[in-house]
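Known limitations

C-alpha cells in this collection are predictions and should be treated as such. Users comparing against experimental data should check residue numbering before alignment. To illustrate the layout, the record for Superoxide dismutase is reproduced below. The input appears on top and the generated C-alpha cells appear beneath it.
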Amino acid sequence: VLLNKTTSGFFFSFRSSAKLVAPLGCLVSRQKHTLPDLPYDYAALEPHINAEIMQLHHSKHHAAYVNNLNVAEEKYKEALAKGDVTTQVSLQPALKFNGGGHINHTIFWTNLSPNGGGEPKGELMEAIKRDFGSFANFKEKLTAVSVGVQGSGWGWLGYNKEQGRLQIAACANQDPLQGTTGLIPLLGIDVWEHAYYLQYKNVRPDYLKAIWNVINWENVSSRYATCKK
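Generated C-alpha cells:
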C-alpha cells in the first residue's frame, strides 16, 4: 500500500490479488472505486471463518466503505472546485474512515487463504526471528495486541522502512496503518465484531486463535519483499 500526497492531503493506492487497482482520491479525472473480488469462495476459509461471515463482511461491510468513499470524494471534488475549505475539512473524517476501510479490507482478503496457516519461510521468517526472537513470540504479541484493541480496530504487522525492522501496531476503527503510523502494512487482522461475531460471538480470542490457520504467508512475504526494495 502506498501513501502519496495530493491537494486533498493524501491518496492511497494498492494492489489487489490480481491487478493494480485505480488510485484512491484522484480528484481531477477520478475513477470510482469498486469492490475487489475475493481470490477464493466465501466458504473457502471454513471451518475457521464461515461463509456467512465472509459474505456479509465482503459484500455488505466492505461494499459500504467503497460506496461511502465514492460519495465523500465526489463531495470533496465539488468543494475543491468551489474553494470551499470548510466543507473540505468537514469531509476528512469520512475520507479517512471509508478510505481506510477500503484499504484495510483489500489487504485483509489477500492476507487470508484456504491454503494458509503454518509459518512463513525465507527472509520474512528470518526478520521475524530477528525482531521478535521467535515466530511463537511474534504470534503471541500480535494476538495480544489484537485482543487488546478496545472496541473496533485492527492488529497489524508492519514494516518500519526508516529503521529497517518489523513492528506490531494496533489501529482504532478503520484508521489505515501507513497513513496514521507510517508503517507499511504486511499483515492485518480485523477485530471489528462483524469479522467474527456470527461464529465466535463475543469471544475475540477464539477468533484470533482460528485465524492463524488461514494466514497467507506467501502474500505477507511478497509484501515484505516489495517494501524492502
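For this record: The two ends are 14 Å apart (CA to CA). The longest strand covers residues 153-160. Please report discrepancies through the issue tracker.
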